C-alpha cells in the first residue's frame, strides 16, 4: 500500500507533522518471546532483519523494521482493563488481499475474533499470543476526503462502530466476483 498524499499540512505554529508512523515495539515476557516472533512472521508475512535473544526486528516492506519484539523477563500479563493502546491496524489495498490473508491465517489456525464493516473500512480483528489486538483492513472509499465525509455524516453518527459480518461469507462474495463497491458498503446502508 502506498502512502497517501497528505491533504492538509499543519503550519509550523501548529507543530510540524511527522511524515510516517515508522514502527512499533512490543514488550513480551520471556515465555512468549519465540511465540510472538513466530506469530508476527506469519501474521504479517514478515522477515527478520535482526534476531537476538533480547530483541528481534521484523519488516514486511521497505523499512528496516516495522515491528520490534523485546524479551522482558518478569513482565506481568497484558491488562486489557487498563488504559492504553487498543489495537494496531495494518492495511491492504484490495478486498481480494484481505480475503487471501484471512484464508492463509485460517490455514495456520489464526482466526479473527471480530469482523466488522466500519463504513470507512472493512476490518478483521485478531489477537497475538500476548493478547494485543491487531486490525487488518481495507479502506472502503477511494479518497481520504470521502472517508472523512462519511465519518461526519448522519449514518456514522447513528452507528460509529459498524456492522459485523461473517468472514466466510465475505470470502465467498469476493471470490464470486461480486462488485467490490457493493461488498464494501456497510450492510445497514445497502438499499434493497
Calculate the terminal CA-CA distance, rounded to whole Å. 33 Å
Q: Output the strand order for the largest sheet.
A: 5-8-7-6-9
Class computed from helices, strands and strand pairing: alpha+beta
Question: What sequence of helices (H) and strands (E) makes up the elements?
Answer: EHEEEEHEEEHHEHH
* Shape label: globular
InterPro entries: Glyas_Bleomycin-R_OHBP_Dase (IPR029068), Glyas_Fos-R_dOase_dom (IPR004360), VOC_core (IPR037523)
Pfam families: Glyoxalase
Domain VOC: 20-139
Organism: Talaromyces amestolkiae
Keywords:
192 residues; alpha+beta; 2,3-Dihydroxybiphenyl 1,2-Dioxygenase, domain 1; 2 domains; 5-stranded mixed sheet; 9 strands; 27% helix; 25% strand; globular
Write the layout of secondary structure elements.
Elements: E1 24-29, H1 33-43, E2 47-51, E3 55-59, E4 67-72, E5 87-92, H2 95-107, E6 114-117, E7 121-127, E8 133-139, H3 144-151, H4 154-158, E9 163-164, H5 167-175, H6 180-184
Parallel strand pairs: 1-4, 5-8
Antiparallel strand pairs: 2-3, 3-4, 6-7, 6-9, 7-8
Helix pairs in contact: 2-5
